[in-house]
Amino acid sequence: xAKRESKEALKARARRLSEKLARLxxxxxxxxxxxxxxxxxxxxxxxxxxxxxRVNQVTPALFAKYPDPAAMAAADPRDVxxxxxxxxxxxxxxxxxxxxxxxxxxxxxxxxxxxxxDLVTLxxxxxxxxxxILGHVYGKPGLVVDTHVRRVSCRLGLxxxxxxxxxxxxxxxxxxxxxxxxFSMRLILHGRQICKAASPRCGQCTLLPDCPxxxxxxxxxxxxxxxxxxxxxxx
Length: 235
Fold this sequence. Notes:
Blueprint: H1 7-24, H2 37-46, H3 52-65, H4 69-73, H5 77-84, H6 90-108, H7 116-119, H8 127-136, H9 147-155, H10 164-174, H11 180-193, E1 216-219, E2 222-225
Antiparallel strand pairs: 1-2
């Protein structure tokens, strides 16, 4: 692969990658369980530093008691903390849930807004969470950049940045908008199953012909990450 790739060549490679990922992971949606916009937001907040499986075990009781933003805004923090305890960082997550709920009630009439501009004004909500809402609730283009998307897109040479906002811009610039949500969801699945942080399974990767393996090195016959993993602080 050429060291300097033209914009046209990059778009063509991104299209091939997108097509391969679509065949590998035809179901491109988050694995969080939810039925309403508020439930999607709450579950996404809880998923920070926690598995989706664990969140799905906790949310039925949470949603039964606090089914909408108004109920959460009036909730006793100690009760919320008790319910979400096993998701980790439960005190901070409780503060985020209540703060976002209060903002939705006071400024948006108990209805979760449907634009990036409004969503990111909610306390505790960053672009990653907002893009989840846009893509999975409102059917609008939203490219989610989590730790997996960050790592895999860099290894694929689709971005040279480690900043989530810039990665989002770079990927959006080379993909059609109707691909933004499914492409990011498929990168997440690929990062979990194949392109793992410490030991990517390059020999089993269908994307290998189109992957420059940036940041991957061979140690004792095994592929490993050449750099330290970094945490996305804002969601």
